[in-house]
Amino acid sequence: MRERGAMVRRSEILATESVACLNGALSHLQNIWEEIGIPEDQRLQRTEVVKKHIKDLLDMMIAEEEHLRERLKKSIDMCHSELDTVCQELNVTPFKPVHDSTMLQLEKELRTQLEVLIKEKKERLQELKCLREKDEDFCDILCITPYSIDTDFVPSINQLDAYRQYIASLNEEKERRWAEFVNIKKQIIICMDELDQLPETSFEKDVICEDEEAFCLSNENILGLNTLLQQLEIRRAQNEAKSSELRDQIVNLWNRLQFSQEERDVFAVHMTGSRATTMRALQTELVRLEELKLQNMKNVIEAIRQEMTFYWEKCFLSTEQRQAFAPYYDEDCSEDLLQLHELEINRLKKYYQTHQELFEGVCKWEENWKLYLALENKASDPNRFTNRGGNLLKEEKQRTKLYKMLPKLEEELKVQIDAWEQANGSQFQVNGQNFIAYVEEQWELHRMEKEREKQDRQLKKNKQIEEEMLYGSSSKTPSKRRFNGPNTPGKVRKPGQSLRTPGRSATKPPRFGLNERNKENVSHLNGIGMAMSGASTSITTPQRNLSINSVATTYSEFAQEFSKASKSSCQSRILNSTTSNLHT
């Protein structure tokens, strides 16, 4: 406001100076005219001319300034109108100028804002055009419809963002389909090469022979590629299965005809792959072997019978089930007999393969059961305590593990057998007997055997106790080997003292895995004292108030008696040694 007021005052001063300048000029003219002597009437004329010139100049200046004002008004109105239109097209808030601005300031602000918005409009339209071109390219490649957007209007920022995201998604889809196309094409070429097949249909030729860039990556074409690949893979799988079947037949015939390895190696080049040439070679070899089979009928039948025996064992067939195949015992070799054997061996193979998991489970149980029984027999062997390699503990852990594992395995087999019986409508048998009943019978026989062994040990111990009561017990502990060391003073035996044998240091008894066997470690108190200390029957040892039939009921009690007997023996030997030294 101050600047504006200062400008007003300066313009007023300039106006006053202009008036003063005009008055000075007129006064100067009057002086000149007076000095020249121009009459009054001519002075008036000349003054009128000066007035007219001044008036025309001022009128011209006023007209020019008024024209400038009109142009500013028109420009302001036009900018207002265009701004409203562009704001509406760009979907932005209309421009609101400052209220106290002059016409020049307003026109400049409007014009500047209009230029900014027009530039933004051009940029949006240009980006829309680029996105539209990309969209058309993707539509041609992917065979899809163009993006729905009105190109007659300026798109908003949100519309452009959505369009850009759509184009980005199309680009990703194109890359995905392209990678899928290249991968499927590679697999199709491999399959056709293995099948010795050339492109036949127009679609196959477009895929294999034409330029990859020209291939339309539509959903229909991608689906067609997958369908073609699946068909080729099915044919290849059929060829592989057929080739594998032919090879199995050839190997079986080689085995039955007792071909040497050198004879087989001649044909080894055709024992891999499933090409048409390979299959033709396999079929030719099979025909040749079939002819040789007929020429060597007896040897082939014997080979089949050996294989049949193998599968009988694998399938746990009983003697009655084996004897049910009467041709096995027929000695009249003929083509019909060979055919019956081949049908039977194929049936056995299929039967075994169908229920292989079940048979393997039964076999696993039998192997673990036999191992468990072997470990049980070792656990009952008294000589196992002489072990010094740590195998006793390992065997005990293994036996405990098997004892826990066998019931779990039996439960799993029971579930499988129930499912098998429901599916086949018959009872699953092992060697002609129900498997579950067979398992229960084995456990019962094992329990009875353990009980019998326990009774035998008890009778033996009772008999030993009776003999000791009648005839006395004798020490069976061997004397301790003298080690190479400094000589010690000899012990002096007092008169009336019995002869002592060198005592043996007590060793830590082995641990037992089950309480059942711990209860069987029975020993009489006198037997423990003399066996562990190595003393003769005449030496006095600490006695405990136990009956003649008392036994160690657990392993811990057995170890406690063992330890006490050892301590008693050691103390007795130390006292005797000290006495001997004193006498010496």
From TrEMBL:
Residue spans with biased composition (Basic and acidic residues)? 449-466
**Could you name the domain of life of the organism this protein comes from?**
Eukaryota
Which is a GO BP term held by this UniProt record?
Answer: mitotic spindle midzone assembly
Which InterPro entries does the entry link to?
A: MAP65_Ase1_PRC1
Keywords attached to this entry? Coiled coil
**Could you tell me which residues belong to the region Disordered?**
449-518
- Gene Ontology CC: cytoplasm; mitotic spindle midzone
- Residue ranges annotated as coiled coil are 103-134
Q: Which Pfam families match?
A: MAP65_ASE1
> Could you state a single Gene Ontology molecular function term?
microtubule binding
The identity of this protein, by name, is: Protein regulator of cytokinesis 1b
Which gene is this protein's source? prc1b
